[in-house]
Amino acid sequence: MRLRQPYIDLIGIWKGFGYPDRRNFQWDSKARIRIWNGNNCHFVVFSDLDEPDSGTSITNSSENLATFIRRDFHLDGTILWFEHYPRHNTPECIRQANHWQEEVSLVSYTWDGQKYLSPRWVYIKREAAETMIDASLEMEGYRSLSSHYFSCPVLI
Fold it and tell me: What are phi and psi of 92, to 5 degrees?
């Protein structure tokens, strides 16, 4: 059993991209954000909440989320970024019908000195991510977490 806890564990809320039929209308989007300290690096996991109305996906907001997190939590040095789609709230029959399963990706970006650009994803097994971080990616308790609002959307 993994006992290592993140030093930041919250629900991040940001303005997503909005509805395609409403130009300039942005909606609140949210995901679980966890950050762990490692040996000379930070591990950051964006976890989809797997709930209706959680806004723009973590994949479509990836570089903005990474930029917000680096800025708001004053991260520097090496950062390993992960996207996590747990599928924990999706009924088994729907997961099977759509061939959905839990997904974890290691994400890399280009840093231009102000923001992250050009995300690249490599799918990895959940167990590999948990070994790298030395922590569990389970989603229990996320509904009781505090929220953090990211401001000033980064336009890409």
Answer: -55, -40
Q: How many CB atoms lie within 10 A of CB 119?
A: 17
The reply to whether 2 falls in a domain is no
Say if 141 falls within a structural domain: yes
Q: What is the pLDDT of residues 74-88, one digit of tens each?
A: 999 999 999 999 876
| Regions of the chain short of the pLDDT cut 70 | 1-3, 18-26, 88-100, 152-156
Give the H or E element holding residue 35: strand 28-38
Domain that holds residue 44: 16-149
CA distance linking residue 139 with residue 145, whole number of Å: 11
User: What is the tally of structural domains in the chain?
Assistant: 1
